[in-house]
Structures are given as structure tokens and as C-alpha cells.
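Appendix B, example 12.
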Amino acid sequence: MKRITLRNQKELESLRSSSKEVNSIDELLLRKVLEDSLQDNGIDNFKEITNLNNISFGHFILIEKILAIEKLSPDERVAMLSPIILRPLDELKIDNEDAVKESEHKDAVLDENIGNVYGAFNRFMELRKTYLYKTYNGVIYETLDEDDDDEEEEKEGTNVGSSTSARAFHTKKFFWNSMISDVAGNDIFKFSEAVELMMYVVMPFLAEKRSLQIVEYLEAKAASM
């Protein structure tokens, strides 16, 4: 009996319809399979991100870039992001350079029960919101007030409209390059080392830098009055 996974989730509605009326053992089994597939039983076969401090800066940037792709539907975003936030159990730090190994990992995630994957995705998004907009509010993106919607989060972008200034477009397009440069001390030869740093090292550094910028701005403003 077929389980519902990210690979075949488009069949979910038709399977739901066919399982509404139970007239046989097969239909009863179908309903049981659907219920089991949609239930969040947690993640056992992969390493789930439970603390953003424990991933690398490069891993974090990869996640943020996927979340910023505007053309993705919600289901496509989950399918694309899940293999990045659910990693092999024996992996200490993200290593997706082996194309064959990464393809096998992606297949395994796509074959996981859909309820488990969406449960992990929702937990990650809550974790991310707390990390970026409470623990480190204003460090990576603009500050988020309690009443602001999630859709108002600052996102990386590459499209420029008639109302967007050239400088604003440049800032968005090279947002992550600039962030990596800050961490690397503006030394292009250290970019590779910067993205390998763990987030528990990167975020306090960026938070201190951001705080100093605010202090300098307020001091300059006071001096000009």
C-alpha cells in the first residue's frame, strides 16, 4: 500500500476522496496508510536541526537563499529545503559536494512520510523565527516587531523595479557576499574559511558589529545637533 511522501503528495487529494467511504478491507487499509503518512511521528532517519548555533554559516546561507526564492510554491519550498534541514545521521557538518551521495540523501528524504517532513519543517521555521527575530533580532535582517507578519521579513532579492534605487538593488543582490566579507574581515582569500565557521561564532560577532554601528550612528547624530 502506497505511503504519502513528498514524492507523491499530489495524489493526496484523490486518495483522500477514495478513502472517505470504507466498504472493504483494502479501503480500510488505505485509510490507515493515509493516517499514518500524515501523522508527525518525529524524525528518526535523519539529523534534524534543533539549534541553529550548531550549523555552519554556509549551511545557514544555503537555507536562507532557498527561503528567498519567490517563485516557489509552499510545497515546492518544503521539498527543496527538507534535504537541507534534514541531514544524514553521520554528518557532522553539511557536506553536499558529493553529487551521488547528496542525490541518494535527497531521495531518502523525499521517501519519508510526509507528516514527519512537514512536522520537521514547521519546527525549523519556528526555531528560525526565534533565532533571527528574538535572539538576534536586527542582526541579519531588519528588526521584527511582535505585531509584524512573517511575510514582512527581509529577504534577499535580485529583481529591481522602477521604485528601487540602484544602491538598494546592489545591497540586495550582494547581500550574502557582503555578509561573508564582514565575517572574513574583507579578505576574499578567507571567504571559504568564513562560511565554514559555526553560527555560534558568527552570530555574536555580527551582533557586536551591528551594535557598534548603532552606537556610532547615534553618536554622529547627537554630534550634528
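The radius of gyration is 22 Å. The mean pLDDT is 82.
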